[in-house]
Amino acid sequence: MRIPNLKNASWLWLSCLLLIWASCSKMDDIEKKFTKDGEMTYLSRADSLQAHGGNGRIAVSWILFSDPKITSYKVFWNDGRDSATGTVERGNGADTIRLMLNGMQEGTYYFEVYTFDALNHSSISSAVTGKVYGPKYAASLLPRTYKKLSRVGDALEIQWMDGGDQFAGGTLHYTDDAGKTTEVALPNRTDTTVLPAFPNGSSFTYSSAFLPEPGAIDTFYQQATVNVPVDTADWRKYVSIFGHLGSLLAEDPNGQIFWYGTDGHQGFQKTTPVLLDYPWYIFGLVLSYQNNLIGKETETGFLYRYEVDENGVLAPAHWRIGPAGWEAYDLLFTNDDYLYARKPDGSLWRYPLLPGGDMGSGTLVSGTFSQYDKMVVSGSFLFCRDASGNLWRIAVAADGSTAAPVLAAAHWDAYDIISVLDGDLLARDTEGTLWRIPVGTTGELGQPKAILIVYESI
Prior knowledge:
single chain, four-stranded antiparallel beta sheet, Immunoglobulin-like, mainly beta, 3 domains
């Protein structure tokens, strides 16, 4: 028969008693913190504790449920080295306490909150971690970026990249064609923004707003300016430039004609110019008339008509038009209704261009025009440059009679090419810049604008 070891059993019982005693002592220590005059004093702790970061500051907030004993609070951070206190004015029911800590360094903080009664009894702590933002965070932000800019008629379309979770929207400003400053909202989930009447060669400025965290008390902003790029063609390499159905046609010294497509907004697309594949070198002069090109053959003086649409597509067929003998004229120019032809003696003839592409009989335009070295027609107005560089405007009536010349502009000897585009004047200066000069309803000239080559999309 095995006899129990009474000595070991005694030590086991003694260890259990000591453990129970120690636990009761620890509970007594905790209880003493909440005991007043032998009674337990329990204070409500800060409930639903939150910290919302901002720019160099942070808001710490919590809820106090119904406890009339609470009169103040204390918040600790930086391992208790820093603290803030405040009094509590209790209302009926739950109260929300909000403490704003200003002048905080950027970084992450651990906050402990205690509540107190009038006898300085404390609750147990509530804790929360919060973050303060500042220059480092701001420097990490980039304005929302775009992935594509596109021309859509007179408007600019912006396709945006995703702004990220912290992007909170923004605003965009630009000056439209009429000179009006326009503000456009940029909601945070907008993928595309359209800017109506956006000028060629202009820019827009936009700000991007960022919230570093949900419920952040401050918004950070980043601003950017985008210059919408344009380009210029080397217009100096062409011997003739003129408008055709809103686009530009330019002929080089080898008799090759290139088509520059319009962007629909007085600019021209940044694409490789389309070559109108034909031996245009056989013509000493090529003119535009509605959807046709008219070429004056150098060898014979005959006129031929070719259909070319607004996309620069050349029809294979061509036709001879009008009588022979066009070599007798030293200047030819057109609008949508007439072909004008000047003889060396200064007489000016006008031939109606018929809808079918043929030509009617010519009539004499009153006046003498030998003093002009360049002549074009816009609507019912002749624009004629004399040897002194003065540009004269002459109104032509339906019967071919003309009004007295009116000086339209001086110093037009600075231009070596003068032609017409959609009723406006085109003029290339000696440095190779191509200008578009608006013509008003009464023939007055507007402010010149350089012809720009616009990127269809970027």
